Each structure stands twice: as C-alpha cells, then as structure tokens.
Amino acid sequence: MLLEIDNLVCNYGRIRALHGVSLSVEEGELVALVGANGAGKTTLLRCISGVQPAGGGAIRFAGDDIIAMAPERRVRLGIAQAPEHRQVFGPLSVTDNLLLGGYTRSRAEVLQDMEKAFAMFPDLKQRRRQAAGTLSGGQQQMLAISRALMARPRLLLLDEPSMGLAPALVAEVFDAITALRDAGVTILLVEQNAFAALSVAKRGYVIETGRIALADTGAALLEDDSVKSAYLGI
Amino acid sequence: MSSQFLQFLISGITVGATYALVGLGFSIVYNSSQVINFAQGEFVMIGGMATVFLMAAGAPMPLAIALAVLLAVVIGFALGKFAIEPARGAPVVSIIIITIGASIFLRGAAMLVWDRNLHHMPAFSGSDPIDIGGAALLPQSVWVVGGMVIIVAALQVFFSHARIGKAMLATAFNPLAAQLVGISTRGMLLLSFALAAGIGAIAGILIAPITLTYAGVGIMLGLKGFSAAIVGGLGNPMGAVAGGLVVGIAEAMTAGYISSAYKDAVAFLIILAVLLIRPSGLFGRRESERV
Ligand SMILES: Nc1ncnc2c1ncn2[C@@H]1O[C@H](COP(=O)(O)OP(=O)(O)OP(=O)(O)O)[C@@H](O)[C@H]1O
Ligand SMILES: [Mg+2]
C-alpha cells in the first residue's frame, strides 16, 4: 500500500472536521474521493500534505509513519498536491511556477520535466513568460497540475481540479487526468463532480461530514442508489 | 537650482538611502512572515557599534565591517529562531510585542557590552567635500548612496534569478502553495531575518561616519525605516527604497527651510498622509493582486 490512512482525526480549533477517516491508495491506482460541500475532502488532503496538523490516527506513506513530518519533507518523500483554487504563484511567470514545483529536485531533472509539461499542455509553453495570474482558469489548473508533477511525485493529490471551469475545460482536465492515470501516476482525486471522478477512478470513497460513508470500485459507486440520488442527481 | 536646495537634496538623499535600506529589511521580513520586526533598527545600531569597537580593538576597518555584519546576521537569525519562530501562529500583535521586547533587549545588551557614549567612525575615504554647483558632497555620501544602489541591485538579481530568492518570493505570494512545493517556510523566515539584519547593519555602518553612532541610534532609524516601508507599501521592497528617499528628502527640506525641530515629525506626517490617502502605500500593490 502506498498511502494508508487509519482512523484520522482533524480539528479546526474546537470544530472536528474529520472523525476517524480510513482510506488507502495503492501504487498505480486512481482513487476518487467524492462528497458534498464541507464534507472534509480538502481537510483530508491538507493533512496528507502536512499543512494541517492531524489530531489523531495514522498516516503511512510507503511504510513510513509521516503524521508528524514537516510538509517539505513529505514533498521530498513523493507527495505533491495541486490544491483547491489552484494557488498558482500569480505574479511569477509560468516557467518560474514550474521551476518552483521542482524545488526539491536538481535543476537538470527539472528542466527535462518542464519540456514534458509543455508537451502535455502546449498552452503553457506558449505563455511560459506570462505571469501565472494572467492565465485563464483552465490554464491555471493545468499549471497547478504541472507544477505538482514537477516534483515527480509518487502520489499526486488533486483537489477539485474541475472547480469553476466551463464544461469544455472540465473535459480537458479529465482527459489530462486519465492520461496521467494511463501513464501510471498514482492519484488521489478529490471532486464534487462525482460522476466524472468515479468514471475515471478504479476505486472511490464517499465522504460525509468527516466520515467515510461508502467505499467501493468506481463503477459500483456509480451504480449505487444512495450515491445516485445524493451526488449524481439521478 | 539654488546651491542651498542642492545641499538639502544631497543630505536628504544620503539619509534617505539609509532609511531605504532599513525599510528594505522591514519589507523582506514582512514578506516571508507577515511580521513587522520592530527590532530592525537595532541591527543598524549593531552594525555601527560593532565596527567602532572592533576598530578600537585594533581590527582594520574592512575586517571590522565584515565581522560587524556577520554579528548582525547571526543575531538576526537567532532572533528569528528563538523569539519569532516559536511564536508562529500567535496573533500578529503578540509577535510585534515580541519584536519590541527584542529591540529593548538588544539595546540594553549593547549598553552593557559596549557603552552609552556617542562614537565617531572615520569616513571610508576621507572627508574632503566635493563641490557640486556650490553644494558640498561628502565622499561618505557617495558610499552611502552607492552602497544602497549595489544592495538593491544585488537583491534584484537574488529575487529574480536565484532559486532560493524565488522561493522567498513564492513564500511571500502564497505560503500554502510554497509549502506544497516543498519550500520550508520556516527556513525562509529565518533567512529573511538574517538577510534583513545584514542589510540593516550595512546601513548603520555606511551612515555612522556622517551621523555618529550610539546604543540608542536604532530607535529613530528603525522608525524612519518603518515609515519608508509603509510609504512604499509594506512588503514591496522597491517601494521601500523609494519611500526611504521620499522620507529622507522631505526631512532634509523641512530641516533646511522650516526648522530642524520639525524634522522627525515629517516622517510621521508622511505616514499619516499616505495611510489616509493611499493605505496600500504610494508604490503598493493593491491587496487583490497579492492573492
Ligand atoms: N480554516 C478553517 N477553520 C474552521 N473550520 C474549517 C476551516 N476549513 C474548513 N473548515 C470546516 O471543516 C469542514 C470541512 O471542510 P473542507 O474544506 O475540508 O470541506 P470540503 O469537502 O473540501 O468542501 P468543498 O467541497 O466546499 O471544498 C467544514 O465544516 C468547514 O466548515
Ligand atoms: Mg474543498
């Protein structure tokens, strides 16, 4: 198991956001985590990356207990995240955003990977000197994903990559995610767009108010009646 | 231009360059940590005082200067590590109070380790004034302004080309994203304190031959540097440089044409005016652009 989360608890002050979440991701898998607004999806990813302290439970990555590890060490171990709302470095150029994405690696490796990112997203190449903040929402999302990939992660965390995008761009983002999946990248994908996420995922989890409510294969969850009525609007 | 005006302008730019360097320190620290470090002025004092005492102990000037800057850098780092870092996450006001406490401590320590007297530092390259259009330009003024220009240029290169400089900028723009790409924001905080302390010390050393130095010299210089940073838009290093020059020139003009009694009030009038009319500073980015 690459990522193993056991009974994870997380609090914001006196508010408990995660009430004992257990979840796992195997090497090479695309796992989707779906749930409504405020269910705790972002909180879970923040705990995995270490930018939010856990209040209990265990997080193991490739066998190491990482629950108390500083965020930058987790990146070095191989956990990268494209966070909610993209969070690109707005005033810096596209190139600089990508260079910083590879902050934990050698410059030569980073330059190589930058060419790969540009090959995957030609729009970014064309705008590589432009400030990231001036890109469109879709381009910023591509940049956020590419920036995370620059760390050459063993596990890629994606937080609502389709949020706020027009349908055509949503399709483009999901095409990119499937391409990464097919290339063997291990991905934990958080989405409110449950249909799209479960369609591309091997397995999925449904999170409700800080608890895992359902866990199954992506295909089975798409057929599940409670998922259909609550998240797919069917 | 009358020679009198020119004279005031020269002295305004000289002292303004010092404020600019101190203001740069405020901005660099603020950018990496959202902390307003009111101990910044004390590094100006440490630079000047340490140089004077090292020279009195027999060190040649260049060595004394290098050691004084190094001392300030070490103290700046220690301030970040032992006083600010442990308090991270505390309300901003608490952290500001910590920095004020640190400044009182450093000043007291300087009085104990060194003394309470005024000290003169020899000018770097003589003190025969150069005549420009009837105004006297001290060679040390050229050192002050030249030093400021070199530091600003070096910082410009550091922030736009060095990997670690870019990481500092990235931390300023978006600390969360910086952490997520593997930048140690804690490391950036310490680096910014050390860097700001070093720049402050250099400012103190450059200006000491003109203004004299003593254990309490950091209070006013710190406040003026803070004004420079506010006028330029807190967190905007190049704005702080411009702000320093604005404050320095305004001060010199007031002292020259009105009365030197109002000199210090000018900086604070400018702060008030800027905060009322353009709260983000004369050269400030608007908040929305920083998100
Ligand atoms: N900084 C915070 N302080 C206090 N409570 C928070 C904070 N961030 C999130 N919460 C609370 O924690 C719970 C989980 O929030 P979280 O952002 O993880 O949900 P989410 O599933 O990502 O939602 P969304 O789909 O809207 O992004 C919510 O009840 C939210 O109000
Ligand atoms: Mg969220």
| DSSP summary: helix tally of chain A | 10
Quickly give the CATH architecture of chain A. 3-Layer(aba) Sandwich
**The CATH homology group name of chain A:** P-loop containing nucleotide triphosphate hydrolases
Secondary structure tally: strands of chain B: 2
Structural class of chain B: mainly alpha
Range of helix content of chain A: 25-40%
Find the count of extended strands of chain A (DSSP E, 2+ residues).
10
Largest interface, C-beta closer than 8 angstroms, per-chain residues: A-B, 29 and 20 residues
Structural class assignment of chain A = alpha/beta
The order of strands across the largest sheet of chain B is: 1-2
The geometry of chain A reads as globular
Name the helix and strand elements of chain B from N-terminus to C-terminus, one letter apiece.
Answer: HHHHEEHHHHHHHH
Range of helix content of chain B: over 70%
Oligomer: heterodimer
Report what the structure shows.
The complex is a heterodimer of chains A (about 230) and B (about 290). Chain A has about 230 residues and is α/β, with parallel strands linked by helices. Chain A has ten helices and ten strands. Chain A is about 40% helix and about 25% strand. In chain A, a hairpin with a 2-residue loop joins strand 1 (about 5-10) and strand 2. Chain B has one domain (about 15-245). Chain B has helices spanning about 5-35, 40-55, 60-85, 90-115, 140-160, 165-175, 175-180, 185-210, 215-230, 235-255, 265-275, 285-290, and strands at about 130, 135. Chain B has a two-stranded antiparallel ribbon. In chain B, a hairpin with a 2-residue loop joins strand 1 and strand 2 (about 135). In chain B, helix 1 packs antiparallel against helix 8 (about 185-210), helix 2 (about 40-55) crosses helix 9 (about 215-230) and helix 5 (about 140-160) packs antiparallel against helix 8. The longest helix of chain B has about 30 residues, at about 5-35. The chains are: A alpha/beta (about 230), B mainly alpha (about 290). The interface of A and B includes residues 51, 133 and 147 of A. The complex binds adenosine-5'-triphosphate (ATP) and magnesium ion. Adenosine-5'-triphosphate binds near residues 37, 43 and 84 of chain A. Magnesium ion binds next to helix 1 of chain A.
